[in-house]
């Protein structure tokens, strides 16, 4: 996901951007006083919150951002014997089995895990990963477009295949993008193993556009985002997140009374993101302290307005903007990790031949 904030998500080919956070410097990361976080490009934390961790723990934090979530996970697997860092953040439930099956993480039970909702603990027997946040992948719509065309916005997966929504939807490639994969899984959960392919045939016939990643879909193709408007985007429906409307409000130059975009609540798929202690981490002690920090109240309450996701810690406060402009989906589609693990690669292969060829 993220790939979920309104921060550009670069879907580069394995290019790493090195960003120093807080008082981090450009040390090699092998220093026992430095803990290195590997994440996707949507990682974000308030400077004062990170400084609190550095002050209290005595560790400096170095951050390696490595593209979209799917790309970052694949790269971490390829480098697992000599990892780039100590902690990985950003593997979600759609890709979790790939990371676990490849032995990416070593077990660690975070301090404070007992206060994290049980529904988010998808590896609770082995504790190889720690839940950090959750969000919903959903179709967003451009309110102005639907108002001007006197058209009711779609509310369900089935609606999107109706003739009145022809050539209006843009989604991400399920093979290269986390939200694209989540949307595919949502459709499988909705229509079943027998029905989802027919559904995608209808979507294709109805003019769905597929692009590589969220950044391109949301910033360039979607007419409802501020950047999409500037780019001349002409698709009023996009696969994004339930938390995208509050982001549009918060980042607007002049804050509007209502969000310019809405959420088709019957198209949502629940995404949970995790952090893990990398198997061959050079600083496992620092990594453990950092994972504890990720489920602390201070980080969990800072996170929503930095990464536009919801906390997993019970009792963590959610910003008013989320409640007002982007409440979490009441009944999102979900799927057991084992089901995803057993079928994901075949579903993506079938989807690719069906939709892209």
Gyration radius, rounded: 20 Å
The residue fraction in helices comes out at 25-40%
CA-CA gap between termini: 26 Å
Can you give the mean pLDDT? 89
The count of DSSP E runs of length 2 or more, i.e. the number of strands, is 12
pLDDT below 50 for ≥5 consecutive residues: which ranges? 1-29
**Strand fraction band?**
15-25%
SSE series: EEHEHEHEEHEHEHHEHEEHHHEHH
The shape, in one word, is globular
How does the helix and strand content classify structurally? alpha/beta
Largest sheet: 12 strands, mixed
- The number of helical runs is 13
How would the blueprint of this fold be written?
Blueprint: E1 17-20, E2 34-39, H1 47-57, E3 60-65, H2 69-78, E4 87-92, H3 96-101, E5 105-106, E6 130-142, H4 143-148, E7 169-172, H5 178-205, E8 209-211, H6 214-221, H7 226-231, E9 237-241, H8 244-250, E10 261-263, E11 269-278, H9 284-294, H10 297-302, H11 304-307, E12 310-311, H12 320-325, H13 337-356
Parallel strand pairs: 2-3, 2-4, 7-8, 7-9
Antiparallel strand pairs: 1-3, 4-11, 5-11, 6-9, 6-10, 6-11, 6-12
Helix pairs in contact: 5-13
Describe the structure.
- The model is unreliable at 1-29 (pLDDT under 50).
- Strand 2 (34-39), helix 1 (47-57) and strand 3 form a beta-alpha-beta unit.
- Strands 1, 2, 3, 4, 5, 6, 7, 8, 9, 10, 11 and 12 form a 12-stranded mixed sheet that branches.
- Helix 5 crosses helix 13 (337-356).
- Helices cover 36% and strands 18% of the residues.
- The protein has helices at 47-57, 69-78, 96-101, 143-148, 178-205, 214-221, 226-231, 244-250, 284-294, 297-302, 304-307, 320-325, 337-356, and strands spanning 17-20, 34-39, 60-65, 87-92, 105-106, 130-142, 169-172, 209-211, 237-241, 261-263, 269-278, 310-311.
- It is built from 13 helices and 12 strands.
- The radius of gyration is 20 Å and the shape is globular.
- The longest helix has 28 residues, at 178-205.
- By secondary structure, the protein is α/β, with parallel strands linked by helices.
